[in-house]
């Protein structure tokens, strides 16, 4: 195939690159005049061999040793050849770093060189055959691919020409190769990011910080086994940057944020459901999780702290600069307002009408009233449940919850149990978001003076 014909080819989305796809093609291989339906591509000295991605290569001019190398590089799934990273130099040479610190050098006008030491008499080794197989995968599968007599190139087309026609980046994007110089995290950041990604699939719903903790006392057997996968995945991610990039594509930052807050909201629901269970059944032994008022309040305060830890880790860079992530702030505010709505609607003696009578319920509001327990101690010193977290967010984020916060204000201002300081902070928060909304609408914005 000529260079002109190759230049008209494209990297196809439908290209067969998986084992399953190759298996289907092996079941119904493309028919060619040179190959009978009963011929086998793995005969001792075949003239044609079929690669793992369904391409047929003509190796009729090769000697037995070169055919053996071609079969290893082009046919075997378990040839242990993996790309680590690649680069292009200013003088037009290409370097491909493979596993085991093996490097292939490709430059125009010269036979590709491999550092494995198995290139003899200028003939290709298994690594170069593998590399040629990657480049020739842009060709259709319905034609036989002619290889040069030394195995170093597709006949009449040097590998460097193919790379320049399609660009190294195009092949890198298609095969998930890492191009040296791409912005990859350092080792510590990579280890942390892999753990964050794996936590999304943790079987017991652990949050990232919990998954990274060394404490395994309360983990199920399934969670312990999943945790043991972490160092294995990290090891591969460090050794193969392309593998790490594939993990990032599968588990994007947006996906991680979504999963985190799904887990948080599930825990919020579980906390209130457990309180309802306790109110209904009392301090008895039963299968459904239950929490008394004090324990439920502590659970909710813990969830607030977990959200804040996540915001801090996600929104603050290593340099201490705070970055804007609207989705994290939006979902965090939504979770906070949900908690506040539930708490402010439970301003009563939780046990007043409980059906259980075997024990005397507590009479202290700090122990029987969730509202008093969480909002009652509000002060500059003790903090303001949820509100001090909302204050830390941009006004436009809080503004989206203006209606809900207005209803909460109506609820808390009509009870003497609301600390004046708490009501004051709530009103200030609502007013500030309304002011910012009015100024951004342009209706009351001041006119600019001419410069």
TrEMBL record:
Residues 102-136 form the SWIM-type domain. PROSITE patterns: ZF_SWIM (PS50966). Residues 33-48 have a biased composition (Low complexity). Residues 1-11 have a biased composition (Basic and acidic residues). Residues 1-48 are annotated as: Disordered. InterPro entries: Znf_SWIM (IPR007527). The keyword Zinc applies. The keyword Zinc-finger applies. GO terms for molecular function: zinc ion binding. This is SWIM-type domain-containing protein. It comes from Paraphaeosphaeria sporulosa.
């Amino acid at each position: 195939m000529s260079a002109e014909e190759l230049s008209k080819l494209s990297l196809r989305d439908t290209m067969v690159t998986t084992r399953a796809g190759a298996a289907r093609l092996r079941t119904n291989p493309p028919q060619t005049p040179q190959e009978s339906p009963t011929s086998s591509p793995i005969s001792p000295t075949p003239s044609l061999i079929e690669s793992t991605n369904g391409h047929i290569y003509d190796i009729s001019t090769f000697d037995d040793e070169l055919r053996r190398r071609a079969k290893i590089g082009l046919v075997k799934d378990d040839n242990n050849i993996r790309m680590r990273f690649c680069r292009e130099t200013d003088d037009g040479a290409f370097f491909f770093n493979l596993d085991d610190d093996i490097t292939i050098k490709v430059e125009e006008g010269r036979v590709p060189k491999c550092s494995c030491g198995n290139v003899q008499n200028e003939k290709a080794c298994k690594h170069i055959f593998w590399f040629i197989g990657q480049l020739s995968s842009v060709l259709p599968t319905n034609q036989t691919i002619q290889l040069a007599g030394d195995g170093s190139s597709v006949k009449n087309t040097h590998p460097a020409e193919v790379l320049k026609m399609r660009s190294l980046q195009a092949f890198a994007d298609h095969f998930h190769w890492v191009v040296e110089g791409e912005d990859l995290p350092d080792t510590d950041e990579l280890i942390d990011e892999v753990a964050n990604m794996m936590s999304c699939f943790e079987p017991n719903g652990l949050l990232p910080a919990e998954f990274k903790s060394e404490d395994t006392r309360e983990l199920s057997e399934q969670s312990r086994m999943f945790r043991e996968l972490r160092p294995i995945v990290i090891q591969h991610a460090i050794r193969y940057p392309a593998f790490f990039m594939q993990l990032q594509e599968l588990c994007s930052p947006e996906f991680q944020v979504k999963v985190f807050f799904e887990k948080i909201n599930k825990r919020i629901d579980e906390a209130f459901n457990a309180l309802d269970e306790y109110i209904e059944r009392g301090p008895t032994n039963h299968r459904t999780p239950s929490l008394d008022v004090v324990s439920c309040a502590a659970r909710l305060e813990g969830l607030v702290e977990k959200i804040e830890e996540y915001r801090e880790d996600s929104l603050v860079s290593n340099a201490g600069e705070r970055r804007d992530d609207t989705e994290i702030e939006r979902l965090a505010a939504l979770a906070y307002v949900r908690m506040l709505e539930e708490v402010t609607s439970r301003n009563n003696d939780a046990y007043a009408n409980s059906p259980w009578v075997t024990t005397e319920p507590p009479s202290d509001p700090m122990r029987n009233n969730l509202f008093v327990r969480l909002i009652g101690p509000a002060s500059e010193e003790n903090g303001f449940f949820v509100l001090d977290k909302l204050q830390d967010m941009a006004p436009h984020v809080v503004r989206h919850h203006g209606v809900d916060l207005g209803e909460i204000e109506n609820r808390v201002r009509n009870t003497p149990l609301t600390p004046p300081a708490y009501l004051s902070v709530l009103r200030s928060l609502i007013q500030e978001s309304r002011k910012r909304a009015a100024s951004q609408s342009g209706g009351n914005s001041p006119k600019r003076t001419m410069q």
